[in-house]
Structure formats: structure tokens, C-alpha cells
């Protein structure tokens, strides 16, 4: 049973989400203070954290920043609808996904399942054979990526994106295909999460000898992982 920590000071929403997730088979712990999320990350006591951005004592962005210094536990952010600044900030700091409030319990449960699949066992039908793409080695079964012989520190979402590109190394992969294969859902208009996560992966890979990124983009179409 997956253990979820839900951090939100909206008592009515928290109760609604907790009851629904418990019926879905999750163990759910709730709190109104972001410091509980930091403690859980440090102690590795939960499988995933649902974190509201608008918190009274310490906002969700600051909490996420502290969590990522301690752990790569999956984090799903609850954001104000239409607040792109908070969403992008959260993704840049390592959030695995976000759901705008008010959200339906069903949507939240679906997002949790997708994140946990990416952070845990591969989805059914996914090969666990080692993938080699130039200096990159991907181990889907253990969800470990090696770059130039060193382990890459990736979030669950970053690993999934890099795995998709590695499986089609040297070929252009459309954003729609990336979204379906990495996130398990179609890309929606104005959704920038792929671009934000790719930017983070690019930084971790560094630059080629010619000063170019190892992950090339074709404007409005998709991304390509170079292998030489």
C-alpha cells in the first residue's frame, strides 16, 4: 500500500481528498504545516507527497526546495488555477507534476498513479533491458541512469523523459509522443512541463565539445538526444 502525505491547510478539501484516496487503496497522512513534508522526506517515511503551494507558515515552493536537498521522493504540487509562475517554479525545483485547484479527487488519484509508476516499477510492456545511447546508459528496471560512467541524480519525471529520448536516440521525438510515453497522457495546449524538465536534464548532462546541448530541440515539434 502506497503511503501519501497530503499537506494543505484547506480542511474541507483535505478531508475530501483523503477519503477518496483511502477508498482507492492509499494510506493517507495529512498535515497543515510544510515542515511535516520536510521531516517525511528526511526520514523516507512516505512514498509520495502532495504539497499545496499556498501555505501559511512556509510556502510550498520553499518546502519543495528544502525537500530536494534531502530526497528525491515524488512530489505533486497543488497550485492556484492559472498561476503559471508557481507551476514553473515548482517544476524547476524538481516537482514531478502539478494539479490546479480546485481539483477533482479522481484527477488527483490518476496523477498519483502515473507518478508512482514512473518512480517505481516500469509500466506493463516496458522493457527492462539496459539502454545504451552513446555515453548514456539507462537501467529501466532499477531506474538508474549513468552518464559518462557516473550516476545521474534525476527526479522520477526526469528519468522517464530521458528514458523516452534514449530509446529513440538520434531521432526526433515529438512532444506529444514524449507526453504519452513519459506521463501516460496526451499533451495539452500551453503545457510547458516537458520543456521545463528537459531544461533541467540538459543542465545535468552538460554541453558537448562544440558547446551545444546533448538534447536538441526542433521548435514546436519535439526533442532529439544526440549520441556522438
Automatic annotation (TrEMBL):
**Alphabetized InterPro entries for the sequence:** CheY-like_superfamily, OmpR/PhoB-type_DNA-bd, Sig_transdc_resp-reg_receiver, WalR-like, WH-like_DNA-bd_sf
DNA binding happens at which residues?
128-227
Domain OmpR/PhoB-type: start-end pairs? 128-227
4-aspartylphosphate PTM positions: 52
What's the domain of life for this entry? Bacteria
> Is-annotated flag, keyword RNA-binding?
no
Q: What is this protein called?
A: Response regulator
The record lists the organism as Rhizobium aouanii
Amino acid at each position: 500500500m502506497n503511503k501519501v502525505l497530503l499537506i494543505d491547510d484547506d480542511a474541507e478539501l483535505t478531508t475530501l481528498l483523503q477519503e477518496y484516496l483511502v477508498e482507492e487503496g492509499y494510506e493517507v497522512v495529512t498535515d497543515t504545516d510544510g515542515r511535516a513534508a520536510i521531516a517525511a522526506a528526511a526520514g523516507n517515511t512516505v512514498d509520495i507527497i502532495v504539497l499545496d503551494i499556498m501555505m501559511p507558515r512556509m510556502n510550498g515552493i520553499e518546502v519543495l526546495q528544502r525537500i530536494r536537498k534531502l530526497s528525491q521522493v515524488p512530489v505533486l504540487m497543488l497550485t492556484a488555477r492559472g498561476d503559471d509562475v508557481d507551476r514553473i517554479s515548482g517544476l524547476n525545483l524538481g516537482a514531478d507534476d502539478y494539479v490546479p485547484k480546485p481539483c477533482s479527487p479522481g484527477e488527483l488519484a490518476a496523477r498519483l498513479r502515473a507518478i508512482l509508476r514512473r518512480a517505481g516499477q516500469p509500466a506493463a510492456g516496458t522493457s527492462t533491458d539496459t539502454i545504451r545511447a552513446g555515453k548514456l546508459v539507462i537501467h529501466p528496471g532499477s531506474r538508474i541512469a549513468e552518464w559518462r560512467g557516473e550516476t545521474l541524480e534525476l527526479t522520477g519525471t526526469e528519468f522517464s523523459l530521458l528514458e523516452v529520448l534514449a530509446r529513440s536516440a538520434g531521432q526526433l521525438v515529438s512532444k506529444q509522443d514524449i507526453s504519452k510515453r513519459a506521463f501516460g497522457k496526451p499533451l495539452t495546449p500551453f503545457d510547458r512541463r516537458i520543456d521545463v524538465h528537459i531544461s533541467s536534464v540538459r543542465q545535468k548532462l552538460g554541453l558537448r565539445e562544440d558547446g551545444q546541448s546533448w538534447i536538441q530541440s526542433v521548435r514546436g515539434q519535439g526533442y532529439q538526444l544526440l549520441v556522438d
